[in-house]
Amino acid sequence: MTAEEIDWDSLRATALEAMEKAYVPYSKFPVGVAAIVDDGRVISGCNVENASYGLTLCAECTLVSGLMMSGGGKLVAFTCVDGHGNALMPCGRCRQLLFEHSAEGMLLETVSGIKTIDEVIPDAFGPRTLVEYRESTIAEQ
Ligand code: THU
């Protein structure tokens, strides 16, 4: 899918709807995310905090859980909004989470425009790194 083929307004509206469901008694910083899966499904997520602050689930965590629970697949487009509906950059850990489930060339709506997953997490550590290492150790034997 190219950036022009994606209905970013509609995806953002889904993220806004998800943001309304955020459980944020501690930070009072609601986040909503939405993504298009490679089979056309649209999924979403919100952040869910915890009294043990470090256990907070970012909105991307609930999105990835929803991805797996609704049939899996790869993410082709993603957007993230704050409580004002403004674009929000996924935190570092969540870029890693998204990378794991990204389709080749996945697009993200960011604070600085539409970017690819490789632009927001360059030279990422990921599934391929582990496969390549395994293959190189087999070749050594
Ligand atoms: N948060 C997210 O849900 N996703 C991000 O990518 C950035 C941060 C949440 C976690 C916490 O509930 C709140 O924003 C403030 O850090």
From TrEMBL:
Its cofactor is Zn(2+). Pfam families: dCMP_cyt_deam_1 (PF00383). Residues 6-128 form the CMP/dCMP-type deaminase domain. SUPFAM superfamilies: Cytidine deaminase-like. Keywords: Hydrolase, Metal-binding, Zinc. It is an enzyme of class 3 (hydrolase). Belongs to the cytidine and deoxycytidylate deaminase family. This enzyme scavenges exogenous and endogenous cytidine and 2'-deoxycytidine for UMP synthesis. PANTHER family: CYTIDINE DEAMINASE. This is Cytidine deaminase. It comes from Herbiconiux moechotypicola.
